[in-house]
């Protein structure tokens, strides 16, 4: 089922909904652990899950395998991330074919992070330059078969900080065929809500799904905020810095802060939350519990379906 249809059904129900992002692990054991967690977290009731793509296509076989397993073995509606950084068109087409063959009908079309060793990203000859080119390519090749999401940046992205220019580029991606937007993580809810108004003022009407990063540890919280160059509200630092060496306290206080952030988003009328799980269950579950969004204890858990990755990484 297309994510846009899931979002429309969620909107109609009047109840808040959520989804989970997982990244591709580097070892065979990590893959098996993630399958177990995916299945367990599937019982929380996500609308969909999505699986990241390593820019340039490293581990691409694993992304397509995991998408296939999540969709067909675990019955989770799955969205495959696909980047076009440093990738030949043939590799992009191969990935799309694998997704198609695996029953996946949702793609998050991205340019990809620039390679770390280079200061600037440059396109492969004959390849794609921007995410909008990938969106257009998917639409040209597959029509409406795939639902296509694109990335949004309430606080700017790597190589463009001018919010107005970024909004123009976001509009181009949507005009090329994007039907929903998933945002970069943020901790300042006012920046996000202000950005949503600007997106709407640009005439972009597709659903906006806020990306939420629960707090696992203090070190990871600071590292990710620094990496994505997002603002941490003063109140958050005042609450978390004094307990930074106490992981349990960080998680508890972090839960309260993230619950408050999510509640403000829900109160604004946006009723879908997208959690960057970092392949971990606890912090995300704590936030969902705090929002009263976990299914009741008497709902039956799906039976365990063991699956072994065929790729033998490790
Ligand atoms: P684009 O929208 O193409 O934008 C890239 C840059 O080009 C921007 O500065 C933009 O302003 C500029 N630009 C766009 N169009 C034009 C134009 N017409 N003229 C001039 N400049 C233009 N990375 C991964 O490697 N793998 C993942 O799985 C992954 N998942 C992500 C999921 C989400 C929700 C988000 C928010 C990001 C994700 N990323 C991922 C990171 C993303 O690939 C990087 O942030 C990347 O630098 C930008 O990707 P984009 O798709 O937004 O690119």
UniProtKB/TrEMBL annotation:
One Gene Ontology term, aspect cellular component: cytosol
Cofactor(s) annotated in UniProt: FAD
Keywords of the record: FAD, Flavoprotein, NADP, Oxidoreductase
Domain of life: Eukaryota
Pathway assignment: One-carbon metabolism; tetrahydrofolate interconversion
GO terms, molecular function: FAD binding; methylenetetrahydrofolate reductase [NAD(P)H] activity
UniProt-listed GO biological process terms: methionine biosynthetic process; tetrahydrofolate interconversion
UniProt family annotation: Belongs to the methylenetetrahydrofolate reductase family.
Protein name per its UniProtKB record: MTHFR SAM-binding regulatory domain-containing protein
Species whose genome carries this gene: Orbilia brochopaga
């Amino acid at each position: 089922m297309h994510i846009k249809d899931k979002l429309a059904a969620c909107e109609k129900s009047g109840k808040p909904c959520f989804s989970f992002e997982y990244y591709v692990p580097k070892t065979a054991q990590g893959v098996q652990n993630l399958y177990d967690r995916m299945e367990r977290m599937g019982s929380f009731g996500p609308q969909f899950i999505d699986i990241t793509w390593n820019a340039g296509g490293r581990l691409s076989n694993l992304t397509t395998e995991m998408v296939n397993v999540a969709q067909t073995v675990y019955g989770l509606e799955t969205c495959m991330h696909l980047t076009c950084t440093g990738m030949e068109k043939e590799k992009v087409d191969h990935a799309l074919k694998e997704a198609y063959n695996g029953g996946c009908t949702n793609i998050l079309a991205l340019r990809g992070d620039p390679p770390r060793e280079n200061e600037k990203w440059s396109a492969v000859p004959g390849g794609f330059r921007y995410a909008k080119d990938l969106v257009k390519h998917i639409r040209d090749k597959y029509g409406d078969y795939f639902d296509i999401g694109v990335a949004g940046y309430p606080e700017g992205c790597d190589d463009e900080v001018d919010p107005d220019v970024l909004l123009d580029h976001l509009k181009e991606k949507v005009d090329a065929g994007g039907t929903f937007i998933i945002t970069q993580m943020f901790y300042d809810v006012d920046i996000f809500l202000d950005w949503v108004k600007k997106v709407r003022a640009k005439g972009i009407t597709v659903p906006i799904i806020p990306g939420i990063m629960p707090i696992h540890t203090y070190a990871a919280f600071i590292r990710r905020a620094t990496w994505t160059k997002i603002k941490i509200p003063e109140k958050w630092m005042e609450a978390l810095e004094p307990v930074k060496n106490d992981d349990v306290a960080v998680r508890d206080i972090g839960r309260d802060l993230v619950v408050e952030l999510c509640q403000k988003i829900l109160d604004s009328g946006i009723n879908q939350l997208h959690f960057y799980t970092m392949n971990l269950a606890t912090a995300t579950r704590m936030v969902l519990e705090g929002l009263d969004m976990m299914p009741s204890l008497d709902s039956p858990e799906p039976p365990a379906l063991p699956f072994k990755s065929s790729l033998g990484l490790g």
